[in-house]
């Protein structure tokens, strides 16, 4: 069911998932670990993302995460997801600012 | 403890059953963590224990069978919100409560805490028979013919871990009412049941099948007009058996019973059910009067005593206090006892999140239920709370108590009483956020005098086609859609879930989020400008057709 | 192939297992494989000579096998062995048994641990609805427990 990724100019891909134990949104970092802040996410080109995605999916059980996929972000510091859905996953529900996830660097 | 008013009293056997269920789930979690169970295998098992994986965390949906709780149970929900969640809970359109910030590893402990007060999360999700819903005024309303809760409890028990119907093609929702005024949206359920008294004193049941909202909204069709009580379970078994054997399993969007009923026609479905009944050993499935009475005996009945002048006291208080009077007008319903009244507490403060309640509010509601309504609380499918048996001369005190915790909003059945699903702020299935648009609409129509002037007008908002916000059934319905990552809303008008159930008509192309509230305001203005004396929004819509409203909605676009 | 018995009946081993369509031409066959889309009523002419009906679960979420088993027991009065095979979970053990299934082909992965199946059979001491098993009521309500 993998859609072909079409990145626009200035966009990259990041890998994301939810942690199995607490369900928290996590992002694939340069250290090869899953981290809760999108600011630490590893930015990937389309081809790199394919490789990393296959690897991360295979390792999901070992790494304690569920539902690994990639999503497009603006190549900025910190990276900002393109879709509303992923923005909300990255930052928390818009209706509860007190629960916002910090975009730590 | 004493027998609770309004719901079934558990005994040791029921409690042992819950403990066994928790132990089972704990084992499943362990197998998931060690990898013996894959996520694909674990997911249906956790869903049947109410546990979803959403955008930010797990979500636990706790069952409130037929929407009724006692104060002890409600306090426990408040404690769980405080201890395991973020200090609030969300009441749903199926009379349940869900917590949005749950950890998988905490869930067995939460289920154990729930079991302490005879609660659980069994079959609040999954492709099985879901928590059965019932009339929120059951056992209290003056217009009721049969109190549906005893039979709702029978259905709850019968459907719990049913060996044959736990892996259905898709979810299966049953609602039951005993009033001629449909308050359960009977014709928008997989099975809708309307009870009425039979000639021998036992109730008979009119059964609708194949209704539903979601991707393909369908109004349920009558399968049987008069099913006798003794054959109620046999009939439901037969309906489910036909569905389990023949419902589609190749396409999740065509797997509900409504698609099967539509495909073969209700006559053919009835024939198939009758063929099953013809082969079944009906004695084996017979619901005996003894069984019904045994379950009825576990329900306590409130002792309704009120002073003779209770009604006069209320009348005087309403005269003295216009604000109170406005709340009474919108938020109460006639009780079968002349000294009592049914109070609906709005969980729709202007600009607030529909159906959300904080731990403090939840606990306060439990106190008020103890003080004013025999410790009994009902959750409505419109995401509000009902105290069913309030003495008329004490209603104002209740209202004052509600005011202290911001729960005295006078908007039941009015435009501020918005129904909304959690939407994209939480839900993994959603395409758009439902809550912010509900908040903006609530703020736009915050003035309760204006709301009273507009009159009966129900807005329902769903963040995706699965229609948890029942947008097809809203007088004005909003469906959130995703257009290249941006939120848009499709408007429908003319839906209704009450008697004369209808599916709303789509007005036109979906509007950008920031234009939607204005468009709805113009639709409301159109109604106010063109209504004739005494007409509700639906009346005017019926008289004029939807064209003027379409023009109003798209005027500025 | 490892078999697990859900009840008292001893599981039988059959070398020849045919489809419903093949039954008509094979007088010698005593065991048939029912796919989840097959109508159990098709077995009616052959029930007297069948010792074993195997229900294949393509995936554990496909619950048609439960209805098939009940139909075999309740409508067709089949008294031979019913077995489930394919993608099934130990979590389904009691459901299978209560619908009339006698044995399962244990999955070859972690779900095939007989200890898990054994445990699940004893997980719930009672049920809220009758099944095809011999049961007695617990008091006058709906609750039943298995008759000894």
Automatic annotation (TrEMBL), chain B:
Alphabetized Gene3D superfamilies for the sequence: 3.90.480.20, Sulfite Reductase Hemoprotein, domain 1 (3.30.413.10)
Domain of life: Bacteria
Keyword tags: 4Fe-4S, Heme, Iron, Iron-sulfur, Metal-binding, Oxidoreductase
Pfam families: NIR_SIR (PF01077), NIR_SIR_ferr (PF03460)
Every Nitrite/sulphite reductase 4Fe-4S domain range: 125-279, 418-553
UniProt entry tagged with the keyword Lipoprotein: no
Organismal lineage: Bacteria, Pseudomonadati, Pseudomonadota, Alphaproteobacteria, Acetobacterales
Molecular-function GO terms, alphabetical: 4 iron, 4 sulfur cluster binding; heme binding; metal ion binding; oxidoreductase activity
Keyword Heme: yes
Domain Nitrite/Sulfite reductase ferredoxin-like: 58-117, 353-403
Protein name, as recorded: Sulfite reductase
InterPro entries xref list: NIR_SIR_4Fe-4S, NiRdtase/SiRdtase_haem-b_fer, Nit/Sulf_reduc_fer-like_dom_sf, NO2/SO3_Rdtase_4Fe4S_dom, NO2/SO3_Rdtase_4Fe4S_sf
Species of origin: Gluconobacter kanchanaburiensis NBRC 103587
TrEMBL record, chain C:
InterPro entries, sorted: UCP030820
Superkingdom of source: Bacteria
Record's protein name: Oxidoreductase
């Amino acid at each position: 069911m993998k859609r072909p990724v079409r990145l626009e100019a200035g966009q990259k891909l990041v890998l994301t998932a939810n942690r199995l134990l607490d369900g928290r949104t996590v992002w694939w970092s340069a250290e090869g670990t899953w981290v809760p802040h999108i600011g630490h996410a590893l930015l990937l080109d389309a081809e790199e993302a394919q490789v990393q995605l296959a690897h991360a999916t295979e390792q999901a059980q070992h790494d304690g995460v569920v539902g690994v996929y990639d999503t497009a972000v603006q190549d900025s510091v910190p990276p900002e997801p393109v879709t509303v859905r992923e923005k909300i996953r990255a930052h928390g529900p818009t209706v509860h600012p007190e629960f916002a996830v910090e975009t730590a660097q | 403890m004493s027998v609770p008013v309004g719901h079934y009293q558990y005994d040791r056997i029921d409690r042992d059953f819950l403990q066994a269920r928790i132990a089972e789930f704990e084992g499943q979690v362990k197998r998931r963590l060690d990898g013996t169970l894959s996520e694909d295998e674990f997911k249906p098992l956790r869903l049947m224990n109410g546990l979803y994986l959403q955008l930010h965390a797990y979500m636990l949906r706790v069952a409130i069978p037929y929407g009724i709780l006692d104060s002890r149970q409600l306090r426990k929900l408040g404690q769980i919100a405080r201890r395991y969640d973020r200090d609030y809970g969300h009441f749903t359109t199926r009379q349940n409560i869900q917590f949005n910030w749950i950890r998988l590893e905490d869930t067995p402990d939460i289920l154990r805490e729930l079991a302490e007060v005879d609660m659980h999360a069994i079959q609040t999700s999954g492709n099985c028979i879901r928590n059965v819903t019932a009339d929120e005024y059951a056992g209290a309303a003056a217009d009721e013919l049969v109190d549906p809760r005893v039979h709702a409890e029978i259905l709850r028990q019968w459907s719990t871990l049913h060996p044959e119907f736990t892996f259905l093609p898709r979810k299966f929702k049953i609602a039951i009412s005993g009033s001629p005024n449909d308050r359960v949206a009977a014709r928008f359920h997989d099975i809708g049941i309307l009870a009425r008294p039979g000639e021998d004193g036992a109730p008979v049941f009119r059964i609708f099948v194949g209704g539903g909202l979601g991707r393909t909204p369908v109004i349920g069709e009558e399968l049987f007009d008069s099913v006798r009580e003794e054959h109620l379970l046999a009939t439901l078994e037969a309906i489910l058996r036909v569905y389990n054997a023949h419902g589609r399993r190749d396409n999740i969007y065509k797997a509900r019973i409504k698609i099967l009923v539509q495909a073969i026609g209700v006559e053919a479905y009835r024939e198939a059910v009758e063929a099953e009944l013809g082969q079944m050993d009906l004695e084996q499935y017979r619901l005996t009067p003894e069984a019904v009475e045994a379950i009825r005996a576990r329900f306590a009945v409130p002792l309704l005593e009120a002073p003779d002048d209770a009604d006069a006291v209320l009348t005087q208080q309403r005269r003295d206090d216009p604000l109170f009077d406005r709340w009474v007008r919108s938020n109460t319903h006639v009780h079968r006892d002349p000294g009592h009244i049914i109070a609906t507490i709005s969980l729709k403060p202007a600009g607030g999140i529909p159906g959300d309640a904080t731990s403090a509010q939840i606990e306060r509601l439990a106190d008020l239920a103890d003080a004013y309504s025999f410790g009994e609380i009902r959750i409505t499918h419109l995401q509000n709370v009902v105290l069913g048996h309030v003495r008329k001369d004490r209603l104002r005190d209740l209202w004052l108590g509600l005011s202290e915790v911001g729960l005295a909003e006078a908007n039941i059945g009015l435009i501020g009483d918005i129904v909304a699903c959690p939407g994209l702020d939480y839900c993994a299935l959603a395409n758009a956020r439902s809550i912010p648009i509900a908040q903006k609409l609530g703020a736009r129509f915050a003035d309760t005098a204006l709301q009273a002037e507009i009159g009966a007008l129900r807005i329902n908002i769903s963040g995706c086609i699965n229609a948890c916000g029942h947008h097809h059934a809203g007088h004005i319905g909003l469906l959130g859609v995703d257009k290249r990552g941006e939120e848009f809303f499709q408007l429908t008008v003319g839906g209704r879930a009450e008697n004369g159930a209808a599916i709303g008509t789509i007005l036109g192309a979906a509007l950008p989020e920031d234009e939607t509230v204005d468009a709805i305001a113009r639709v409301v203005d159109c109604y106010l400008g063109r209504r004739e004396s005494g007409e509700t929004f639906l009346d005017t819509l019926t008289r004029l057709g939807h064209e003027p409203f379409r023009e109003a909605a798209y005027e500025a676009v | 192939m490892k078999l697990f018995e859900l009840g008292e009946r001893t599981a039988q081993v059959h070398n020849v297992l045919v489809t419903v369509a093949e039954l008509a031409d094979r007088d010698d066959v005593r065991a048939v494989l029912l796919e989840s889309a097959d109508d159990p009523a098709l077995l009616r002419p052959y029930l007297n000579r069948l010792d074993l009906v195997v229900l294949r679960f393509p995936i554990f979420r496909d619950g048609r096998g439960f209805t098939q088993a009940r139909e075999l027991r309740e409508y067709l009065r089949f008294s031979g062995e019913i077995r489930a095979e394919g993608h099934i979970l130990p979590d389904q053990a009691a459901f299978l048994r209560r619908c009339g299934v006698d044995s399962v082909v244990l999955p070859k992965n972690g779900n095939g641990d007989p200890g898990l199946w054994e445990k699940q059979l004893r997980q719930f001491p009672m049920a809220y609805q009758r099944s095809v098993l011999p049961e007695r009521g617990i008091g006058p309500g709906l609750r039943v427990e298995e008759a000894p």
